[in-house]
Every structure is written in structure tokens, then in C-alpha cells.
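Z., the sequence and structure:
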Amino acid sequence: MPHAGGPSRGCQTCKQRHVKCDETRPACNRCIKTKRVCPGYKEGLDLVLRDQNKVAKASAERRQRITARSRTQSVEDGSSPCAFSALVVHTPLAEDREFYAQTFFVSAFVTPIHDTRTDRGYLEVLPLMFDRLKPGSLLSLSLSVISHSLYAAWEPQIRNGENTETQIAYSNAIAALRDALRSSSQCVSDETLMAVLLLGNYESMINAYMSRPPTMEHVRGAIAIMKKRKSVEMTSHISKRLLVGARSSIVTKAIQTSQPVDTAPELWQDPEGMPHNPAIQLDMMSVEVANLTARVTNSPYACVSDSGSNNAMGHTRKTLLRAHAVHAQLLAWPRITPNDWAPIRLNRKAISQEVVDAGFHGDHCDIYVDIPVCRTWNVWRVLCLKVCLLVAELDEDEVAINAILEIQRITDDIFASIPFLMGSKVEPAAMYDTEFEFPCRPSHPVPLSHHRSAAALGGTSLHLPLQTILGAIAFLKEEQAAFAIQQFHRLLRCYDVVRAPPRVQNRLKSG
């Protein structure tokens, strides 16, 4: 008798293995014990993400199989000698890897429980657009690219985010993007902007994994779309939140590459009703830091031979004045953060030996409300580091000395976040492996949600802070420099990165 009840709520891995899933969250115990990737659970997303034609096809084939079995039984009974003509050999349906990968991506990277006051990215907007997903659409194809890539990167049997399946999906998405950009209505739609951001995310991830130079094509594309959207009324809640997310992506890339940020009014003038929180405010400060850094990096007076000229001295004075003003703004930022965002300090003696052995600096570490809050604090620390580094390099005497001391203090604060973000992890592991230790307060066990969030976001959120610290390695204490190098190598090892980027390799050698 065919099953007439509701759909199974178990994870896709257990379904494919034909075993009962215990539906433990965030990952089922069967997957954890067998070291498999648990993609999470469908919940309401199956009605949005799956192709209903496949469901209809499955139902039709099930009815055909029932009919075939019925006719076979009739033949065996001798009641219908002509029934052999109705026998059909059915091949099993291919597993729905598309849906499997998308469910994994959404459950691990898009919808984890977190403090919504940290929302400033475009991924938080994606669930609001699920009802716009249509098979073969630009948004669906772009979601497929990032989903397949991340799933393949985490799957122990694959461990390659640039596999053939992903490359095919990427080619299809790019073709759909070209078509959308030719349409006057589609080129300014929320779906097109989200697709460009997702494709940019994919390229950034692959470039980081393969240690390739970062590319700016999709960032420039997003900027062009945002400018064009300004001439069209984009007043919906989704459009406004997507604008915030696009801005965050642009300034993050600028901070990473020391490139200036386009400050055109079309990008930064807020329409009424724009969302605001401390994390969004930090992105606005990031624009100042990115442009300040680019001003020095791309200055014609960066050459030592010109450093004594009047023009060079005037340029340096202007840069330092701006740096001190930006630094003052950054120092005021913690005062607008919620009280519960303040890190809780734990003494080294209260930390498990596994965590200490994996990477522990000093006599304490910090724990936070959740990973996104910790990541937001580290973004602020990166901005402070970059400004202090400029002051230490350009200013003189006591001002430069104070900047160096602040660089060392901020570095220690970033180091204190590493146990919370990485725990005892020192090697590649499955996404939902809960065997790792994390620091926690007495009588406050580490929640499963933290294991999940730390696996997906913990290590990746340390990449830029550690890279920035290595950029300031000349001003660090000897033990700080050694610990930074050790932890950067740990990060590369845990995420199977091919090798350190060339600029970082030089810093590692100099250290």
C-alpha cells in the first residue's frame, strides 16, 4: 500500500541511505557518527526550492509502477495474457543533488539563529526572496552555483568547490545574467542584484581557496546596477535591505584589496526607512578607512625618494589629519553597541586543554553572544588596525609609539576571539562535527547552534583579521608575530586552502 502520509522530515543523507533519521538539530546523530555532511532539514523550503515538475513526474512513475505490478500479478494468475505488453523497466530517478546542495547552503549559511542586530549582509535578505525562485531563472541558477560550490567544498569525498558541476552551473548563470542585463526592467531588479552578489561570493571563495588575486568584476557590476536602480523607485523593504547588503559587500572587498570605494551619491544617499543598526554603521565607517588606505597605497609619494619633498609632506599631513579623525569615530563606535554584545572574559585555567593546545594566546579568551556578534567586533578591530598602522608608519615620536601599542592591544583582542571561533579544531572536519571543544562559562554548556555556526562562519571570519595582523607584523611583539603565523597556517590547514596568497607568503617569510 503506498504511503499516504506527510513527507519525511529527515535529512537527505539519511533518506538516501534508507535509514531512519533522528532529526536532531542542527545535524542528525547518524551523520555525525558516520562523519557525513548533514544538509539540515527541508522544513518549509522544499515548497520553494524544488521543481514541482519532478514531484509530478515521481508521482506519475509511482502510479505506473503500481499498475505494472498489478498487471504482472494478473499475468501470474492467468487472468490477463495480454498484460505483458504493459510491462515497463523503470530506471531509478537520479538523486536531486540540486535540492540537496541548496538545502545545505541555506541551513548552514543563510538561516542559522543569530542576533539580527548584526544583519548587514545580503544573505540575510535571501530568505525573503525564496518566493521569487523559479527553475532556470537567473536567481535560481546563481543560488545553484554558490550552493554546489560550498557543498562540494565541505563534502569529505569531494573537497573541491570548483568542481565540474559547479563550473557548468556558473556558465549557465553567467549566460542568464547577460540576458538579464539586456532587459531594461530585469537589469535593475532585486533578483539581478542578488544574483550578481551571489556570483561575486562564489568567485571570492574560489579565489581565496586557490590563492588567486581577488577580482572586482562582480563588485563593479553590482555598483553599476545600484546606480541604475537609483533612477527607479526601489522603496520595498527587500530593496532597501538588499542595498545595505550590497554596500557591505562592496566595502568588505575594498578593505580586503586596499581599493577605494566609489562614494557616488547614488550609492550612499539613503532613502527614507532604511534599516540601521551598529553593524550597518560600521560599514559606513569602513568606507572612510578603505579610502584612507587606498589614498596611501596609491599615492605617488609612496616612493621613499619622494618622501622629503614639500608635496609629499603636505600629503602626509593631510592623510594623518584624516586618519586621526577616522580613528576618533571608530573609538566612539563601541558606545552604540548593545550591552549584551560586550565580550565575556574567561581565564585560561577555565579552558579545556584541547582548546589551549589548538591555539591560545595570553591568559584569557573572550566569548560572545554568537558568531556574528564576534565577527562584527573583529571587523571593527580590523578597521582600527588599519588606521593605527597608517599612523605608526607616517607619524613620529609619541604619537607613533601610542599607535604601535594600540596595534599590539587590538591584536591581543583578536587573538582572544580565536578559541570562541575555532575551538579545538586543527584539521579539516565535517560541517556538523560536534566533537570539538569550545570555551564556555561554568554551567553554560556550548549549544549545538554554536558548533554549527562556528563550522560555517568561525574560521572564515578570521581570515581578514589574521591577514591584517600579518600586515602589521613589523610592529608586533615577537610572541604575537609567532602566534599570528601559527594560527594563519592552522586556518589554511583546517579549510584545505591550497597555499597562502603571495602577499601573505611574503609576510610569513619576513616573520
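Residues 1-6, 43-57, 70-94 have pLDDT under 50 and may be disordered. The radius of gyration is 26 Å.

Let me know what you think.
H.
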